[in-house]
C-alpha cells in the first residue's frame, strides 16, 4: 500500500525528471543557459528526494529505481544533448561520437551501480558519479554562453580552454566506468544547504551566476582528480564482499 510518506519524496523525483526533460527541450531550441540551469535544478531536486524520504521515513525500492531513470535523463542524456547542440555538432562525426560516449558511459555507470552496489552509494562509489560530468559540461556551457568574458561558445570549440574541457570530459567518462573509489558527498540537510544556495545563485544576476558556476567547476575537478588520492578506510569492493549477507536499506539517492 502506497502511503503519503512514499508519495512526498516521489514528487521531488518527478519534479527532477521534469527539469531534466525541460533541459532537453531548451537545448533543442538553442536556449543553452536555461538548459544548463535546468540540469542543476534537477540535481538539486534529486538531492531533496533522499533527504525528504529519510526525514519522513518514506524510503522505498520503487523510489530508488525511479531515481535511476531520473539520473539517466537529467545527468546522462540532457548534458550530452546540451554539449552537442551548443558545441559538439560543430566537430562533425567526432563531436557526435563524443556525445554518444557521454550517454553510453552514463548508461554503463548506472547499470553497474544498480547490480553491484546493494547500498546504492551510501558507503561510497565505485567509479565517478555521473553527476560530476553533468555539472562539468553544463557549467562550462553556461559560462561560455554568459557573455561576461567577451567570448561566445567558440571558446569551447578551439584553443587551450577547449582542449582542457574536452580532455577532462573524456577522462570523466573513463573514471565513471573505472574501479576507482570515491567517497559519498554528504546529503545531510545541513551539509546540503550550501549546495542549495549555489544552485539558486545560478538564477540570479549573471555576475553572481557565473561565480557560482565557476565554483561548481572547481569542485568537480577537485572531486574527480584530487579526492581519490587521499587514503580511504576501506576499498569499496571489500565493503561489498563483507556485506553479502546484509540486507541493504532501500533509499532514494543520486549516483
Task: Explain what you see.
It is a single chain. Residues 233-255 have low confidence and may be disordered. Helix 5 packs antiparallel against helix 8 (206-226). With 255 residues, this protein is mostly helical. 42% of the residues are buried. The chain has a two-stranded antiparallel sheet with strand order 1-2. It has one domain (4-241). The chain has helices at 4-28, 32-55, 61-86, 93-116, 130-146, 160-176, 189-201, 206-226, 236-242; strands at 125-126, 181-182.
Average pLDDT level: 82
How many helical stretches? 9
Query: In terms of per-residue confidence, which ranges show pLDDT below 50 for 5 or more consecutive residues?
Result: 233-255
The secondary-structure class comes to mainly alpha
Q: Sheet with the most strands?
A: 2 strands, antiparallel
Number of domains: 1
Question: Which range does the strand content fall in?
Answer: under 5%
Number of strands: 2
Helix content: 55-70%
- Following the backbone from N to C, one meets helices and strands in this order, namely HHHHEHHEHHH
First-to-last CA distance: 27 Å
Amino acid at each position: 500500500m502506497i502511503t503519503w510518506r512514499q508519495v512526498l519524496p516521489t514528487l521531488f523525483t518527478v519534479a527532477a525528471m521534469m527539469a531534466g526533460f525541460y533541459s532537453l527541450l531548451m537545448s533543442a531550441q538553442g536556449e543553452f543557459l536555461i538548459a544548463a540551469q535546468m540540469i542543476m535544478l534537477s540535481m538539486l531536486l534529486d538531492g531533496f528526494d533522499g533527504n525528504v524520504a529519510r526525514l519522513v521515513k518514506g524510503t522505498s525500492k520503487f523510489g530508488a529505481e525511479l531515481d535511476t531513470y531520473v539520473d539517466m535523463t537529467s545527468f546522462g542524456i540532457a548534458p550530452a544533448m546540451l554539449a552537442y547542440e551548443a558545441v559538439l555538432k560543430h566537430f562533425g562525426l567526432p563531436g557526435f561520437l563524443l556525445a554518444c560516449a557521454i550517454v553510453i558511459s552514463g548508461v554503463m555507470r548506472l547499470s553497474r551501480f544498480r547490480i553491484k552496489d546493494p547500498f546504492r552509494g551510501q558507503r561510497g562509489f565505485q567509479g565517478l558519479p555521473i553527476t560530476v560530468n553533468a555539472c562539468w559540461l553544463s557549467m562550462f556551457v553556461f559560462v561560455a554562453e554568459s557573455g561576461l568574458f567577451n567570448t561566445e561558445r567558440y571558446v569551447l570549440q578551439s584553443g587551450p580552454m577547449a582542449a582542457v574541457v574536452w580532455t577532462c570530459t573524456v577522462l570523466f567518462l573513463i573514471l565513471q566506468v573505472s574501479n576507482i573509489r570515491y567517497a559519498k558527498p554528504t546529503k545531510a540537510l545541513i551539509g546540503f544547504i550550501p549546495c542549495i544556495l549555489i544552485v539558486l545563485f545560478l538564477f540570479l544576476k549573471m555576475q553572481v551566476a557565473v561565480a557560482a558556476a565557476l565554483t561548481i567547476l572547481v569542485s568537480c575537478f577537485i572531486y574527480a582528480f584530487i579526492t581519490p588520492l587521499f587514503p580511504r578506510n576501506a576499498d569499496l569492493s571489500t565493503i561489498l564482499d563483507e556485506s553479502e549477507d546484509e540486507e541493504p536499506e532501500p533509499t532514494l539517492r543520486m549516483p
